[in-house]
Design brief:
Layout: E1 2-7, E2 15-22, H1 23-27, E3 33-38, H2 44-53, E4 63-69, E5 102-107, E6 119-121, E7 141-146, E8 149-154, H3 158-170, H4 173-180, E9 181-183, H5 188-194, H6 196-219, E10 225-228, E11 234-238, E12 260-262, E13 269-276, E14 282-286, H7 292-299, E15 317-322, E16 328-333, E17 360-366, H8 372-386, E18 395-400, H9 405-425, E19 430-434, H10 443-459
Bound molecules: guanosine-5'-triphosphate and magnesium ion (MG).
Magnesium ion is lined by residues 292-293, 304, 312-313, 333.
InterPro entries: G_OBG (IPR031167), GTP-bd (IPR006073), GTP-bd_Obg/CgtA (IPR014100), GTP1_OBG_dom (IPR006169), GTP1_OBG_dom_sf (IPR036726), OBG_GTPase (IPR045086), P-loop_NTPase (IPR027417)
Family: Belongs to the TRAFAC class OBG-HflX-like GTPase superfamily. OBG GTPase family.
GO biological process, one term: ribosome biogenesis
Length: 467
Amino acid sequence: MSIMLRLQPRHSGQLSLSLKVSQRQSRHFHQTKWQFESEPTHTARDRSLDYKLRGKGRNFVDFVRVVARGGTGGDGCVSFHREKYVAKGPPNGGNGGRGGSVIFTASADETTLNHIPYLCAAKRGGPGLGASRHGLSGQDLIVKVPLGTIIREVDAPASAQARLDELSSEETKEEKLKKKWVHYPRSEQTTLAKGDFFRDAQKLIEEEERYARWKERQESESQIYIDMDVPDQSIVAAKGGVGGYGNPHFVTTENRSPKFATRGYDGKTRYLELELKTIADAGLVGLPNAGKSTFLSAVSNAHPKIAPYPFTTLNPYIGTVDFVDSFQLTVADIPGLIKGAHKNIGLGHAFLRHIERSKVLVYVIDLSVKEPWNDFSTLCNELEAYSKGLTKRPSIVIANKADVTAVAKDNFKKFEQIVLGEFESKGEKVAVIPVSAKYKKNIVKATTILRNMVEQEQSGAKPGIAI
Ligand SMILES: Nc1nc2c(ncn2[C@@H]2O[C@H](COP(=O)(O)OP(=O)(O)OP(=O)(O)O)[C@@H](O)[C@H]2O)c(=O)[nH]1
Ligand SMILES: [Mg+2]
């Protein structure tokens, strides 16, 4: 046994105090050692950045793997009608209820996949009861996913498959029978001994199962791959199992009182990957601290966090820009990209999936730095590394922090020349707009150009830039 007490001060430069008590030492406390360790040298800011970069404390999730499992059907019931003066009533066991299904629905109310558990299992169906009462259907599990979620079916993990194979190979014939059939109390041995009726019933069920398997093969040839981009769009990811038959199902002219019923079937199990690709008309891209969030809050109704340190924004944010004629467009703000993001430096570049579907890209560049054109080329390289041809998308360039007059004015001329030249060489047109997002200068011009581009994209026309 070893007990360790550690007091860690929050501020750098102080000493941390640990008290270690080993099993032997605990009986002789006078031997206890007091250890003084010096604190690591990095500051609280470095530590908090490191914490963020490791993705800790984040409640935004845009990729999850889940298992969708339909509910098992309820068991059929073996029962007989009982009434005074009716010595042997007819069979009246109800069928089991169907198991619930797992249904994914696209909802505009959700923004993240955070709430989705690994196992999405629907409820099982109720068992059939006497007096011909069928079991209740199991409740469906409705999982709301944000608009723009892509649901993809994947193969079962090797470990899960191996376990299933192991279980089925270990099962004896009796166990398999028990799993399928329900018998009237104390009648199992006589039913099995008499044989014939039970064998006929087994044949009947086997035939039905063969047909069901064939039908399932036809249906599940194509795996699920669906883009949930329409509000209230739904998909049944895992159907519930059907309920078992009650004993009246097995009545024949020879056997008027069958003392067996079937159990419910297992629901379907599917392994799925859910990936959220936000849908917005325009996507903001830029280096950290360029002023993307400030720009978003200046043009839209969104209030993202703004602060003078890198990686303030950790999740995509969507803002809606309202125009006086009630036209609306949506703009997505994402975390900042840095050089080498495609090699997983900084926050990596996986969050670019949230601007992948934007019709227009808005580059936000900080004009107040020494050489803003370098930032621009870094950005273009990272976008191309994520998806080839992404920079060919209709774009506008926001030259932000134009209010920092000491450098911005000189920088802007050269910056504009370089950017226009670069887009011209690709045969594309672009607008470079000097803006001060913080003081809301030239914002209307930027939003008007943005709107024109989005409208042209929506109408399918080749975008030209009306400045
Ligand atoms: N002077 C000036 N400062 C600005 C302007 N726009 C943004 N800032 C400042 O720049 C800093 C960073 O702004 P953010 O909007 O958080 O930058 P960001 O690009 O969203 O940064 P990340 O989320 O970290 O990627 C803040 O201190 C803002 O006040 C501007 O037009 N002029
Ligand atoms: Mg930000």
